[in-house]
Amino acid sequence: MDPAFEYAFPAIRGVQAKRQFYVSMCPLRLIPRLFLFNEAEMVPELRAQRQLNKQRLPEIARYIAENRDSYVFSAITASVDADVRFDPHEGSTDLGVLHVPMDARFIINDGQHRRAAIEMALAQCPDLGDESISVVFFMDRGLERCQQMFADLNRYAIRPSTSLNVLYDQRDRKARLAKLVVERLPGMKPLVNLERSNLAKGSKHLLTLSALFTATNTLLENQDLGDDEEEVVVSFWSAVLGELDGWRDVGEGRMTAGTFRETNLHGQAVVLDALGRVGNSLLGDPRPWVEKLKGLGAIRWRRDDPQWEGRAMIGGVVNKGRQSVIMTAAVIKTRLGLPLGADERRAEHALNRGDLVA
């Protein structure tokens, strides 16, 4: 190996499955240069990696650029197709310098979206180049293990639930608002599962944090409430809670959440989102929420009530699709004596014509 034409990475050496691997810190400016990702040029046997989803990249790049003091990235994992040399420092066996020839091929096993987003973020903020990311190098002569490594690295990866993401997200304003509702309303707290996005049949909870988050987003859609936003959101859900006796019965232990969900519709995400839609249409109304939502509890919420079929229910099964949300909101508005929006009128006309709801 000619030392004049090689990369030298300060690295720590480790062993997994009787094979040596190395961990190094790389400046961000080197990441796009070292790790090329060109799907068109990649040979088919190495194309078993997840295809690059280019729609995700601007969002990840914005995350870096807008959170310069707090962004965090896990390590990039790469296979190296080359004969490398590791020179340990004096007095150490596993701390030293990894020498990799410049004609080596690097294939990313895990982190290709991070690599592409870093390149995009560097174009906006060149000074990011002096920051670093950890890289794990596995030696893979001929890149024969590349596909298996990708499969192994992703075999036990479990995507966290949306509720858990909302719970732990301290940056997203609307995530904070959804959590604020649970914190500020004692009657809401026992109803909302903060970790799961799908409730088991025997769950003691009636709602999920992810459903409350989605409904709160719907409530605030295309609205700029400024400093009043928190008060509006909390007062809206407080008024909803005050109208729905069934929610209070579950929260206070007079009825189990499972029994409630089996017979009633207003423990479902489609209704929660529809309520947010109704609230959104009432934001310009000067009356307090309690007056605006008067009569909400008198709606026939049983799942077997004929008014829900073709709207919140399709063939007797709850439907959470967008059209179902629109049509459920139309029922609620009609029962409250509120005018329907244009899309709600169109959806009702389509139902009356016998068109299927998507």
Largest sheet features: 7 strands, mixed
Please state the overall shape, judged from the principal axes of the Cα atoms: elongated
Instruction: Spell out the helices and strands N to C.
Output: EEHHEEEEHEHHHEEHHHHHHEEHH
Q: How many structural units, i.e. domains?
A: 2
Query: Helical percent range?
Result: 25-40%
What is the overall pLDDT average? 88
Contiguous uncertain segments of 5+ residues? none
Q: What secondary-structure arrangement, pairings included, does this model have?
A:
Layout: E1 6-16, E2 19-27, H1 31-34, H2 57-66, E3 76-81, E4 85-88, E5 95-101, E6 105-110, H3 112-124, E7 132-139, H4 146-155, H5 162-168, H6 173-184, E8 192-193, E9 207-208, H7 209-220, H8 229-243, H9 245-251, H10 257-263, H11 269-281, H12 289-292, E10 313-314, E11 317-318, H13 322-336, H14 342-353
Parallel strand pairs: 3-7, 8-9
Antiparallel strand pairs: 1-2, 1-5, 2-7, 3-6, 4-5, 10-11
Helix pairs in contact: 2-3, 5-7, 6-7, 6-8, 7-11, 11-13, 13-14
